[in-house]
């Protein structure tokens, strides 16, 4: 080893700052210790690289872990060995200017330390080898190390390794699952197991699932079994949680797997059994038989025995409050329990008032934010808005300040925004609190967000609701639950809100209109490129308040060009433009036809109810389609031209009729021949019939119906 260089100041004995001296004396031992430390620290050299562990070393070290917790770390013995080597290299030699006796003493002590640690390491390895299943554990971990790299293992080798793995663990799985390293082996076995092997593992672990759920690592094994297993495995695992729900939901590890089981895999009856335990000890001790159906609806339980109401409500509130105080507010099970309490609390009493205080009591707002993204939780927030005072509603809205955009696109969260529209009387507060956060305060991002929202099945409701109301077009069957919640709010708000609902809606629509009209003016081409976007534009034009001239002009300009043009098929990266002209799409034709008509069609009166003031879109559109009027009249959007001819406000009607008369033969041909849409539909039905071996029942009215109706106008 090269001789270390000692600085001149060190050899001369640099005076170091020392601790205060008591009574003018310092013990000799203290002085010697300081000198020794100084001698070692004056060495200036790079720290030796840590010795790299081999796979066998890693496996051996892992076997010594009996505790369920932690992750594999570098072994203590190796760290000590590295430290020893560093310490030996840092010892100055006699040539460095130290006394020979001191250098010899340090060297002797270091050598003894190395020998002692070598013996300790040997003893540790012997203890590991003496443990039960030591060889099997080591082998299974080598198999796991190979299997986890699926793409690097040939199929035949993988099958052989899985077979060997099951030969080792079968009958001994309980010995593997409570160690952080070996439980991964069992999870890998489940991953590659066939259904019978998975059932075997589940049966062998029966009776231990509650213990596994409380384990930091073994809880993931339960999730693996439930996700990849079948109904038999589910019915083996889930009942083991019955009778322990109140304790497990408070456990830092078990609570998460319990909620995953409740939310993801449990049957309706299993969910009811789990939820019932929140209602008190009685429902834990006296559970009904497996074959007997139970209900988790608190209203039904209280209807059978009203005398139990007080203790049940008290037990439910205590557990809810406990979890909220512990900041465990993300559980679906908690949200379902909170909804049951809210639905059975008596309106106008302290129960509602105190419950609202509990909900608002979470200063960070995590509870309200988590509630908004589950079905039951969103309903709880809607009821809180409906029952709350003006101050309560303002506080709830403030909590969602940074979350509104995410909520709008969520299948549950968007209903909270609709509820706020319906119950908050201060529409100025609603507009200032919601619209800038929902759409962004940046003008460019506003347009981007509106285009996104227009094409999102959830987010679009938060914008169009103020214009369309509760129409079937806005709330399809998949959103029927939204209408049920809104109907529920209607009943509650009669006692808590004062403003007329129609006035409230009109004021909010007026406040939202400038944002949407500006977006249509700026990004009309992007909006009309999709069915949802075209419908969005139509409804905004009919319902918005303010100057619509610029927006209507931008919409009309999207119709320019040849309506028969079809963009060659390319990838989205090569050409993000729409595949065809807007006039060559069914939704584009509906958009222009509706705007020319100037209002919504009323199915009751069988007539169009024009908006006020009138749009007069026909005169705005015509200059953009004038050069291709025949292509429009004979194409897929022929009804656009028919709408022009039938419009009472269109000033160029005679000019259009003159052009059509000159091309009468073209119209007659289009009225007779099969259109492109009809041909595509027929071919699709014939293909399906051929695949199924059945005769096609598709019957098409051959010819362009719009062209045929235009011919009648020319007579």
TrEMBL record:
Q: Name one Pfam family in it.
A: CPL
Residue ranges for the region (Disordered) are 1-132
Q: Which GO terms describe its biological process?
A: regulation of translation
UniProt cross-references to InterPro entries, sorted A to Z: ARM-like (IPR011989), ARM-type_fold (IPR016024), CPL_dom (IPR012959), PUM-HD (IPR033133), PUM3 (IPR040059), Pumilio_RNA-bd_rpt (IPR001313)
- UniProt keyword Magnesium present: no
Domain PUM-HD span(s) in chain numbering: 101-474
Give the coiled coil ranges. Answer: 653-691
> What SMART domains does UniProt report for this protein, alphabetically?
Pumilio (SM00025)
Q: Where is the composition biased (Acidic residues)?
A: 58-69, 76-89
PROSITE patterns according to UniProt: PUM_HD
Report the domain of life of the source organism: Eukaryota
**Keyword Transmembrane helix (UniProt):** no
| This protein's UniProt keywords | Coiled coil, Repeat, RNA-binding
Q: Which GO terms describe its cellular component?
A: nucleolus
List the biased-composition ranges (Basic and acidic residues).
25-38, 90-104, 114-129
Q: What does this protein do?
A: RNA-binding nucleolar protein required for pre-rRNA processing. Involved in production of 18S rRNA and assembly of small ribosomal subunit.
Q: Mind telling me what this protein is named?
A: ARM repeat-containing protein
Taxonomic lineage of the native organism: Eukaryota, Fungi, Dikarya, Ascomycota, Pezizomycotina
